């Protein structure tokens, strides 16, 4: 694993290239946003943090030094216990970055008014993610719930994966208008809980 600074710089470089070469003129892009890494840190030897792009926001996880993920199949789901909850990640391999696992937070990104708005959401997510909870009160495997709550669409599944969009050069238009107003949630709801 590279050092933190060089790895985050590499991630940003690669996804800026993906945006430039594969995502131009795709309607799901939010032109107010740019590629940026937020909150990357080492947790239990693995690098973890949030990637913001104009088309998605994902939590990214990289293997620890000496940890071999080569036997994992691309697209497979892996569960990882983080301080606040257990989350389901998907195995990905990204050119010039390598193997990683990703957990979708937002896609598309029309909810956000500007880069500062997206950064604040990513920073809040990472801060709350790292607060230890002994026994999560929710179904830990519902990774779509966060996106549904933040959109006020509890019943809507969010299965769109930003990496798959980039690879497929998706040209479908998202016909859904999302609110640009900041969303205020309880800590439990923000990390996948249901308020009674």
TrEMBL record:
InterPro entries: NiFe-hyd_HybE, NiFe-hyd_HybE_sf. Transmembrane segments: none annotated. Gene3D superfamilies: [NiFe]-hydrogenase assembly chaperone, HybE. It comes from the Bacteria. Belongs to the HupJ family. This is [NiFe]-hydrogenase assembly chaperone HybE. It comes from Candidatus Thiodiazotropha lotti.
């Amino acid at each position: 694993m590279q050092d933190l600074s060089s790895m985050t710089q590499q991630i940003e470089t690669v996804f800026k290239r993906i945006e430039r070469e594969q995502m131009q003129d795709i309607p799901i892009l939010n032109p107010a946003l740019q590629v940026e890494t937020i909150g990357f840190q080492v947790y239990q030897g693995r690098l973890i943090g949030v990637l913001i792009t104009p088309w998605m926001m994902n939590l990214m996880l990289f293997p620890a030094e000496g940890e071999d993920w080569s036997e994992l199949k691309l697209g497979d789901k892996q569960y990882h216990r983080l301080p606040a909850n257990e989350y389901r990640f998907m195995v990905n391999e990204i050119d010039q970055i390598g193997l990683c696992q990703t957990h979708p937070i937002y896609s598309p990104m029309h909810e956000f008014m500007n880069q500062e708005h997206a950064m604040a959401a990513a920073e809040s997510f990472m801060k709350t993610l790292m607060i230890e909870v002994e026994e999560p009160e929710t179904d830990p495997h519902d990774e779509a719930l966060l996106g549904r709550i933040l959109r006020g669409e509890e019943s809507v599944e969010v299965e769109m994966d930003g990496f798959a969009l980039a690879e497929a050069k998706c040209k479908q238009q998202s016909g859904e208008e999302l609110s640009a107003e900041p969303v205020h949630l309880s800590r439990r709801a923000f990390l996948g809980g249901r308020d009674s």
